[in-house]
């Protein structure tokens, strides 16, 4: 049976290869190999279930042909095949109307083989070949392992933006509450965490095969970068989406805002747009003058409001800077509050996204089609005994039980408070409103702080003089002996 030790042994083999350097490179190498194995296992199942089924890939590129045989290619022959035939061939697959084929071609546009030793690559391939993705135990076990692999990216520099803690994605989806028949979209989908939770949430409502088909047709995502796009497709297939055709590679911000019409509007949007990043010069020109900025998160918020249907619902992760920022951000918040009912802001503590970033974040929930009259705030507390989050001690879904209990029966309490739109307008649309019931921080006057600092210096100096005297006496005593 597949275990975490299987994946660890694969990673250990990769570490012996000089071409594979770092967690992100190892994951990239591992994912395209696993993608081809999953694709082949699914093809085998579909060939049994469907009459006259056309395989996704030409025979020579199918996993069972080049990878599965134990006595197959290895060494320099294997490396030459992968680098000079397999990957170029997958990048140029014909547009034959087979949706799975077209997805495979899109997935391999920026894929590279980093391994240089064919014998080590063959060992990795044999390990992956031992996993049968048509066996439920292996599939379920790999789902858990895959989640750990994605989580490991949090510490891999900019790759951390690909992973939103599962507790956050699950809570956002539960509160937005997508129903069967509604479209669910993530315009900066990353590896697909919000959509996986949306699938799981809507599957609880399934009563027929037709319902399941509706769900798979209703989830959509767009991802800009190649590695998370491959991870996204793999994640979708692992969660039972046979043809993840509504997962596209691209940048939603590169299309002029005015070009999005009623046909593009959606029922639900759940997302964590990259924050702290900037877009390429010129992208801002796709937006009205008052919203032009190169800050990614702000542009996505403008886009989200545009894409929602009337009475469409959204749950969005945004940094503190969006709440208190001025200039373009003021115009953005004014538009949001006038066009949508921003009914709830859940304020998360710092380090929810650690170690990728320690920036404090917020969950904004809004419905399009009616202006905001008041905003409810809920300050998410650290659980008892905890002062921070980390990779080894992350935020958990159980922590959100208090918000869930409060959600449909709202009252102000030590963690929850509401602010009227009139008060927000008076604040020039500054949404960074602190908990009025939080303990007041005692802030001393600057002259008092300076006096205390000087007193500490005196005490330190006195201690040093005392130590110096003791050492001098000790040395003098030593010299007389």
Poorly predicted runs are none
Q: Strands of the largest sheet, in order across it?
A: 3-2-1-4-5-7-6-8-9
Q: Which CATH class of the largest domain is shown?
A: Alpha Beta
CATH architect. name of the largest domain: 3-Layer(aba) Sandwich
Total domain count: 3
* Tally of separate helices: 17
Biggest pleated-sheet summary: 9 strands, mixed
Instruction: Name the CATH superfamily assignment of the largest domain.
Output: Vaccinia Virus protein VP39
Distance, first to last CA: 75 Å
Order of helices and strands: HHHHHHHHEHHEHEEHEHHEEEHEHH
Radius of gyration: 27 Å
Question: Layout of helices and strands, plus pairs?
Answer:
Layout: H1 4-15, H2 23-49, H3 63-66, H4 75-91, H5 99-107, H6 118-129, H7 136-152, H8 166-176, E1 184-186, H9 193-203, H10 209-218, E2 219-223, H11 226-238, E3 247-249, E4 266-271, H12 296-307, E5 308-319, H13 320-324, H14 328-339, E6 340-347, E7 361-368, E8 374-379, H15 401-407, E9 416-420, H16 421-426, H17 446-480
Parallel strand pairs: 1-2, 1-4, 2-3, 4-5, 6-8
Antiparallel strand pairs: 5-7, 6-7, 8-9
């Amino acid at each position: 049976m597949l275990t975490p030790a299987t994946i660890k042994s694969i990673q250990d083999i990769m570490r012996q290869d000089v071409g594979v350097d770092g967690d992100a490179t190892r994951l990239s190498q591992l994912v395209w190999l696993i993608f081809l194995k999953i694709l082949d296992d699914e093809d085998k199942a579909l060939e049994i279930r469907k009459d006259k089924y056309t395989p996704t890939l030409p025979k020579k590129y199918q996993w069972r042909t080049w990878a599965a045989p134990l006595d197959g290619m290895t060494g320099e022959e294997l490396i030459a095949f992968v680098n000079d035939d397999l990957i170029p061939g997958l990048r140029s697959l014909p547009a034959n109307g087979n949706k799975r084929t077209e997805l495979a071609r899109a997935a391999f546009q920026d894929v590279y083989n980093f391994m240089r030793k064919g014998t080590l690559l063959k060992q990795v391939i044999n390990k992956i070949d031992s996993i049968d993705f048509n066996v439920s135990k292996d599939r379920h076990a790999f789902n858990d392992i895959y989640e750990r692999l994605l989580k490991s990216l949090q510490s891999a520099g900019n790759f951390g933006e690909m992973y939103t803690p599962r507790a956050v994605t699950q809570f956002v989806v539960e509160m937005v509450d997508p129903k069967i028949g509604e479209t669910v979209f993530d315009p900066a989908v990353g590896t697909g965490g919000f959509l996986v939770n949306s699938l799981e949430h809507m599957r609880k409502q399934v009563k027929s095969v037709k319902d399941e088909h509706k769900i798979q047709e209703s989830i959509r995502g767009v991802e800009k970068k190649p590695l998370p796009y491959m991870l996204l497709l793999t994640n979708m297939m692992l969660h039972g989406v046979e043809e993840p055709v509504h997962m596209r590679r691209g940048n939603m911000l590169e299309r002029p805002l005015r070009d999005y019409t009623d046909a593009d509007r959606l029922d639900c949007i759940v997302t964590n747009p990259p924050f702290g990043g900037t877009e390429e010069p010129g992208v801002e020109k796709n937006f009205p003058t008052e919203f032009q900025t190169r800050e990614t998160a702000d542009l996505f918020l403008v886009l989200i409001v545009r894409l929602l249907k009337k009475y469409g619902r959204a749950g969005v992760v945004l940094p503190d800077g969006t709440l208190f920022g001025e200039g373009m951000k003021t115009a953005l918040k004014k538009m949001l509050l006038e066009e949508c009912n921003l009914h709830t802001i859940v304020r998360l503590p710092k380090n929810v996204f650690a170690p990728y970033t320690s920036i404090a974040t917020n969950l904004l929930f809004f419905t399009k089609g009616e202006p905001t009259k008041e905003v409810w705030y809920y300050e998410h507390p650290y659980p008892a005994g905890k002062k921070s989050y980390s990779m080894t001690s992350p935020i958990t879904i159980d922590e959100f039980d208090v918000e869930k209990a409060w959600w449909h029966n709202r009252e102000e309490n030590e963690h929850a408070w509401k602010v009227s739109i009139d008060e927000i307008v008076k604040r020039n649309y500054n949404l960074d409103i602190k908990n009025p019931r939080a303990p007041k921080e005692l802030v001393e006057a600057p002259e008092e702080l300076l006096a205390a600092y000087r007193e500490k210096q005196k005490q330190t100096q006195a201690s040093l003089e005392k130590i110096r005297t003791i050492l001098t006496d000790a040395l003098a005593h030593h010299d007389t002996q």
